[in-house]
Write a structure and sequence with these properties.
The protein has one domain (6-311): (Glycosyl)asparaginase (Glutamine Phosphoribosylpyrophosphate, subunit 1, domain 1, 4-Layer Sandwich). 34% of the residues lie in helices and 22% in strands. It has an eight-stranded mixed sheet. Strands 7-8-9-10 form a four-stranded antiparallel sheet. It is an alpha+beta fold. The mean pLDDT is 93. It has helices at residues 23-45, 50-62, 107-117, 125-134, 148-163, 235-241, 243-254, 258-271; strands at 6-14, 83-89, 95-101, 122-124, 183-188, 194-200, 221-223, 227-233, 277-283, 288-289, 296-302, 309-311. 56% of the residues are buried. Helix 1 (23-45) packs antiparallel against helix 2 (50-62), helix 2 (50-62) runs antiparallel to helix 3 and helix 7 packs across helix 8 (258-271). A hairpin with a 4-residue loop joins strand 9 (277-283) and strand 10 (288-289).
Amino acid sequence: MKNKYGIVIHGGAGTILREKMTPETETEIRATLKQSLQAGYDLLDDGRAALDAVVAAINVMENSPLFNAGKGAVFTHDGDCEQDATIMDGTTGQAGAVAGVRQIANPINLARTVMEKSPHVLLIAGGAEQFAREQGFEMMPPEYFHTQLRRDQLKAALEKEKSSEGKDSGSITLSEDGKHGTVGAVALDKEGRLAAATSSGGMTNKRFGRVGDSAIVGAGTWADKTCAISTTGHGEFFMRGVVAYDLAVNMAYRGMTLEQAARTTVADKLDATGGTGGLIAIDRDGNFTLPYNTVGMYRGFLMPGGEPYVAIWEK
């Protein structure tokens, strides 16, 4: 189906089990996804740029403790919250990204500022935060990001890791619960411009300054004049497979439709390698797709004349 404009979002993909989610939490998640969609769509409906729409949609999820981005980000092994984000303008090919930031409430806003106000694409950790200060960003205290749910997930991962010591001295237990909260948005505006953005707290119990695909152009985020993509899942697989860019390449060089390209990329770069996750994508004609190979993926879309659609599982 072709649409003149619209927005698609995800709130992460992974082992999202019905039996582990209370009705109250499910209701809250669905409501936040709808709020995210509406925030982005309203800007598109007003004639604003796709870039504005994806940022607005992601801000809603970054500000919610329900997702692994911004407030409610997962903990590293050392008990910190380190976040990654990327944004890309499909019209110009410009991109901005940050990695390992600890004091930024909305990392996607800083990524956009890197794109628009610096000559660089990717800034990390202390350097990114120095740039943020110079650009007038408020520095948030660590407690702003912390939630009890994420503390419990880190505790469980550390206990599991400790119990496995001796069996595998090099093991690092990465919580499944911490893999599915990454947030992303892709949009097509009334002028035919495409944009994509992704924001994430990474993986529970990550170590050594690990950076995920959400900070890497082409891996977790891609936008050009043909399509826009945001991914979520086990980031190492998305980085090795350059998954977001691979989808665009399938369209550009193999002549595939958006749906064909997305399914092929998931099969070749995730299913075939043992990778888990999903992606959202929209093309210049307003066609969109939301494939994943996990138990569930928080996702939704809103197109002209329709109501906000959100889902977690297949049915």
